[in-house]
Structures are given as C-alpha cells and as structure tokens.
C-alpha cells in the first residue's frame, strides 16, 4: 500500500483536484484506492456526492476512538459510484479536533495506526489535507510515504511553499526521518509571465524536489468537479488529465526507488 498526502498550507492551489485526478486514473487501472478527506470543509466528500452533515460516521469517529478497530474504519468508509474508489469522509466537526482533543496522548498517529490495520485492503491511499497546520496535517504527514505539494504558479506561491517547508522542518523528528516530498506546479499558464517566472523560482529554490513538468490550467477540471466526476472519467483526453497521468508515472518511479532503498 502506497500512501500519499497532498498538502499545502496555501488554499486553492489544486490539492483536492490532485487527489481526485490521481484517484480516477489509478482506479481505472484497477488499483484499489482509498481517499481520506481530512478537511473540515469536506470538499472531497461533497465531490463524491456525500453530504457530510447527513453521514452516520466520519473521520471524526476514528479520532474519537484514537486507536480505531478495522471494523470501525470499514464502517465509516464509504463506497463511491466509481469502481475502486472508497472514501473516508470528513465532517465539519473535524475543525474542533485541535481544541477538543488536540492534546490527547497518541493524537498525532491516529491515521498512521488506522492505515496499518487496513493495509491489505487498498493499493493506494490519498490524503487530502486542509490548508492549515493542525492535528489533521500532523496526522497526514506522519502517515504518508510521500507528501505531494501542489503549488499554483503565481506570484504569492513561493511564500506558501516556504511556510510548508518550515512545517516539515518543525515536524521532522530527526535528520534520518526526513519527509519525502514532491512539489507539483499547478494551474500553469504558459502565456503569462507570472507562471513562467514563478516556475523558474520554484525550480531554483527546490531543485530536484520539483516535478519537471507541470499541470496546465485547464477548464475541464472545473467542469469535471461540477459533474462530480474524476477528470480522467469526465474528460480522459484533456491536457490536464494527460499531465496527471505523466505525474503518476513519475511518482510510481519514485516509489519503486524508495522500496529498493529500503531493501538494500
Ligand atoms: N489545473 C487547473 N486548471 C484550472 N482549474 C483548476 C486546476 N486545478 C484546480 N482548479 C480549480 O481551482 C479551484 C481550486 O482547486 P482545489 O479545490 O483543488 O484547491 P485546494 O488546494 O484543494 O483548495 P483548498 O485549500 O480550499 O482545499 C477549483 O475550482 C478547481 O476546479
Ligand atoms: Mg481542497
């Protein structure tokens, strides 16, 4: 099971779109995908037609349990209308977690422990993070094999990226335990100077950690979200979808490399 967290403390950079796009492609290839919505706004949950106010159970229940059983996890997990895509939904109550139980023992590892219990049930887990640093982000970073950091190619992007890097630094327990991350330039518009210049600065600053292609700006993403469908199913021949396929090939190659490193 491969676990990727999609995170950036800046809002509206394409986190949820990245999760849904990769999920669609993976599912169509026959991979079993679990999506985890850790954002109290529940955009990913509503993307798959669920109203978080009307659900019997959400991710919140897993945090309440601290060490949730596989029965509880499976009870809360929802099927979607797309083959191979399951969803652990969010609820608005997740916004209260930090205040209500942020200091409880073991709170940072709830997701990691939960995923260990269901590791044979899925091939890929994609965690959609809220744009804030809190219990949810801490859990996502601790549970994942790699952090995908979508960065919108516009002028304010670098500030957000710097903030994200600070978070990685604060949270890394030791040098050996370094987070693996890949920066993904998103909403790239080759006709604008802002896109070109921002991409150049991101590459200068973060070098190898930056994926060497881009996700282009593509109106099909918004159309797909209006239809509540993964872009790869709604518009399989779109430029944006092709870019996410290329990204997936790149990420899979990185995973193979990581597994080899662990074996050696
Ligand atoms: N490559 C793209 N081209 C055009 N529109 C895009 C692209 N990626 C995302 N969008 C659109 O931009 C908006 C924000 O994207 P998204 O919701 O994925 O961002 P987010 O980082 O998850 O936001 P938040 O921080 O609020 O959770 C959405 O309307 C989405 O359809
Ligand atoms: Mg989002």
Describe this structure in words.
InterPro entries: AAA_dom, DNA_Partitioning_ATPase, P-loop_NTPase. Pfam families: AAA_31. This is CobQ/CobB/MinD/ParA family protein. This protein has 264 residues and is of the alpha/beta class. The chain has one domain (2-263): Rossmann fold (3-Layer(aba) Sandwich). Helices cover 45% and strands 13% of the residues. Strands 3-4-2-5-1-6-7 form a seven-stranded mixed sheet, sandwiched between helices. Helix 1 crosses helix 12 (239-263) and helix 6 (110-117) packs across helix 7. It binds adenosine-5'-triphosphate and magnesium ion. Magnesium ion binds at residues 15-16, 39, 43, 128.
Provide key terms for this protein:
binds adenosine-5'-triphosphate; DNA_Partitioning_ATPase; CobQ/CobB/MinD/ParA family protein; seven-stranded mixed sheet; alpha/beta; 13% strand; AAA_dom; P-loop_NTPase; 264 residues; Rossmann fold; binds magnesium ion
How many strands appear in the DSSP assignment?
Answer: 7
> What is CATH's topology name?
Rossmann fold
Instruction: Write down the domain tally.
Output: 1
Pattern of helices and strands: EHEHHHEEHHEHEHEHHHH
Instruction: Please compute the radius of gyration using only Cα atoms.
Output: 18 Å
Helix content: 40-55%
For the record, the CATH architecture stands as 3-Layer(aba) Sandwich
Uncertain regions: pLDDT < 50 for 5+ in a row?
Answer: none
Q: What proportion of the residues form beta strands (DSSP E)?
A: 5-15%
The top-level CATH class is: Alpha Beta
- Structural class by secondary-structure content: alpha/beta
Shape label: globular
For the record, what is the CATH homologous superfamily label? P-loop containing nucleotide triphosphate hydrolases
Which molecules other than protein and nucleic acid are bound?
Answer: adenosine-5'-triphosphate, magnesium ion
Largest β-sheet summary: 7 strands, mixed
The N- to C-terminal Cα distance equals: 19 Å
Major beta sheet, strand line-up: 3-4-2-5-1-6-7
Q: Give the number of helices.
A: 12
Q: On the 0-100 scale, what is the average pLDDT?
A: 94
């Amino acid at each position: 099971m491969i676990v990727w967290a999609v995170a950036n403390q800046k809002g509206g950079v394409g986190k949820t779109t990245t999760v849904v796009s990769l999920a669609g492609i993976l599912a169509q290839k026959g991979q079993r995908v679990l999506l985890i919505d850790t954002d109290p706004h529940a955009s990913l949950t509503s993307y798959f037609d669920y109203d978080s106010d009307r659900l019997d159970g959400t991710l919140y229940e897993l945090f309440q349990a601290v060490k949730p059983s596989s029965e509880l996890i499976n009870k809360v997990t929802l099927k979607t209308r797309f083959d191979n895509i399951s969803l652990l939904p969010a609820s608005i109550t997740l916004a209260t977690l930090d205040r209500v139980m942020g200091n409880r023992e073991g709170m940072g590892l709830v997701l990691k422990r939960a995923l260990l219990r269901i590791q044979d049930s899925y091939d890929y887990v994609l965690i959609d993070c809220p744009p804030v640093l809190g219990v949810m982000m801490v859990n996502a970073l601790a549970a994942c094999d790699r952090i995908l950091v979508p960065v919108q190619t516009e002028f304010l992007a670098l500030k957000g990226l710097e903030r994200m890097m600070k978070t990685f630094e604060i949270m890394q327990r030791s040098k050996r335990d370094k987070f693996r991350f890949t920066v993904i330039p998103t909403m790239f518009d080759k006709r604008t100077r802002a896109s070109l210049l921002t991409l150049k600065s991101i590459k200068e600053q973060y070098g190898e950690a930056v994926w060497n292609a881009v996700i282009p700006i593509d109106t099909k993403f918004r159309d797909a979200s209006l239809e509540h469908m993964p872009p790869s199913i709604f518009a399989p021949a779109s430029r944006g979808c092709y870019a996410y396929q290329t990204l997936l090939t790149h990420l899979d190659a990185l995973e193979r490399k990581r597994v080899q490193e662990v074996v050696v």
